[in-house]
Amino acid sequence: MATTPLLSGKQVEEDTMPPLHGVVVIALPDHAADGGRDSPSRSEPAALRRAWRLLRLATAPLVVLAAFAVAAHCYGLYSFSFSGGDDWKWGEGRASSFLLPLHPKPKPAGVKAEDSTTAVLPERHYFTSINIGNPARPYFLDIDTGSALTWIQCDAPCTNCTKGPHPLYKPAKENIVPPKDSHCQELQGNQDYCDTCKQCDYEIAYADRSSSAGVLARDNMRLITADGERQNMDFVFGCAHDQQGKLLDSPASTDGILGLSNGAMSLPTQLAKQGIISNVFGHCIATDPSSSGYMFLGDDYVPRWGMTWVPVRNGPEDVYSTVVQKVNYGGQELNVREQAGKLTQVIFDSGSSYTYFPHEIYTSLIASLEAASPGFARDESDQTLPFCMKPNFPVRSVDDVKQLFKPLLLHFSKTWFVIPRTFAIAPENYLIISDKGNVCLGVLDGTEIGHSSTIVIGDVSLCGKLVAYDNDENQIGWAQSGCTRPQKASRVPFFLSRALRSQLL
Length: 505
Hints:
By secondary structure, the protein is an alpha+beta fold. It folds into two domains: 98-295, Cathepsin D, subunit A, domain 1 (Beta Barrel); 306-496, Beta Barrel (Cathepsin D, subunit A, domain 1), CATH 2.40.70. The chain is built from six helices and 29 strands. The strands form seven sheets. It has a six-stranded antiparallel β-sheet with strand order 3-13-12-28-29-14, with no helix packed on it. Strands 5-6-11-7-10-9 form a six-stranded mixed beta barrel. A four-stranded antiparallel β-sheet has the order 17-16-22-23, covered by helices on one side. A hairpin with a 4-residue loop joins strand 28 and strand 29 (475-480). Helix 1 packs across helix 6 (494-504). It starts with 43 loop residues before the first helix and ends with a helix.
């Protein structure tokens, strides 16, 4: 397209000047000696031409970046075929994405905290619904990024099961996974089995000392894409017939656990191996416990911009772990002298109701809270959580006291040694108001679950954030979010798309 010059050698009348897109020209009057009337300067056309030339040089890199962003966007939307027929087809060849609502588990009926001599920790798990079987039936499953195996209470027959929201899953003989199946080999560590064995047994133990045992089963699972299309796929999971510990609490509000770790048996990995999704998933838990958040399978709902990413450490356990350099309460560092300069492991675990700190950091945090709130007195009679404080004024919700406390800050290594990476836990995401109106700390001592030197980030601190687990790139990312309106991510950042629009108009 030809470009019309801004000014010719002669003065251009204002009503005939061509439209200028993306450029604002400000004309300053030149007050001559003849009564202050405007008089054109001879150097003005040349100055404007130089300014326009510099402006075009400055915006050229921006236009190039926008072009690359659009090309990447188109590459993600189209799959090209060179085998004849149509040159391209919309969306074909791209992995699907699935959106699932999350629901907070209701408070279990039972012993009240004030009637007990030991702490009765209220559970804060979140669950979703998965359809399994033929015909497909719904099952409510706790989301757990800390374990790989999904299991459902099963009539196989059941030895120790609790009454759940749905009837027990009953497998047919052809649903039972044999020992020589690759999934069984993966689960059992490639052990040799006798030829007469007809099933693949499993047993899984959790940090709270509860456990589940059963056999592997394979059945149809139905998911609905974000566009409303139903997809059926094979899924291998645990047919659980023997639960122990807290898993036997009755009545239960869920039917089992949805394993989402980076292990080979997890749901995202199984779907990715079948080419159904990219090996990416995430969750967004609303800050308000009574509100519903959401989770997603696939990468369509991962924001392309504004995320903070940290690498995942490879280890023997199938957990999402990374390392943090220091932990602060506001501007005060909580790391003790013996730990100064040492890296602390951090695990993101949606299957944990609470956040856990190493003992030294935990005790340092309690000391900081007591020093920062002199009007609060520790109330050891409140057994809701291990550390509760009685305020000197009535408190109904965290909103009444959150302004009195500072955020917890987990500082990770900087990107390119310059850009800081911080996971901020606001007071409303680590404080809990008990039934007695006390302010309780939702961060616990990690030694209680065998994590003496590890930070575990649980549900209480994952609220108000979109957290993505990218197993393809081996990284974890997060961004602040209200978690109420899931949106497919734009592949072009806002400032580039706006610049591109102004250049094309």
